[in-house]
Amino acid sequence: MMDLSKSARISFGAKLDKTNPSGIHISDETYIASGTIIFAHDFSRSLYADTFIGKQCFIGANVIIMPGIVIGNNTIIGAGSVVTKNIPDNCIAVGNPAKIIKEGIKTKCYGELI
């Protein structure tokens, strides 16, 4: 069973890993946009790893989050990014692979910048 906060919002077009559903953790007031794929397994490496997304995050459209990644609280991931490494709290990350372009940000509900 996936660990999804009742206050998280997940678009209908998002895809959450059903091969390892107990490995998906999405925290309070986080928004996952359409087309996003969140993995918690990788057959090629025989890897089953928990993937965590923090509180008050915004995950843009068509983002891919690889297994075992931790995305911190109050973080924004730009549309189309591929997250291959952990992203700390209070950051904006974009690109393929995703890189931090801004630190020290603050967000409120569903990752809206303050």
Overall description:
By secondary structure, the chain is mainly beta. The protein has strands at 3-4, 9-10, 15-16, 24-26, 31-32, 37-38, 41-42, 47-48, 51-53, 58-59, 64-65, 70-71, 76-77, 82-83, 91-94, 99-103. It has a 6-stranded mixed beta sheet with strand order 2-5-10-13-15-16, with no helix packed on it. A 4-stranded parallel beta sheet has the order 1-4-9-12, with no helix packed on it. A hairpin with a 4-residue loop joins β7 (41-42) and β8 (47-48). The termini are far apart. The mean pLDDT is 97.
Features:
four-stranded parallel β-sheet, mainly beta, six-stranded mixed β-sheet, single chain, 114 residues, 16 strands
Fraction of residues in β-strands: 25-35%
The residue ranges in which pLDDT falls below 50 over 5 or more consecutive positions are none
The total strand number stands at 16
Helical content (DSSP H or I, runs of 4+)? under 10%
Number of helices: 0
Mean pLDDT: 97
Distance between the termini: 33 Å
Which structural category do the helix and sheet elements fall into?
mainly beta
Q: What kind of sheet is the major sheet?
A: 6 strands, mixed
Oligomer: single chain
- The strand order across the widest sheet is 2-5-10-13-15-16
> How are helices and strands ordered from N to C?
EEEEEEEEEEEEEEEE
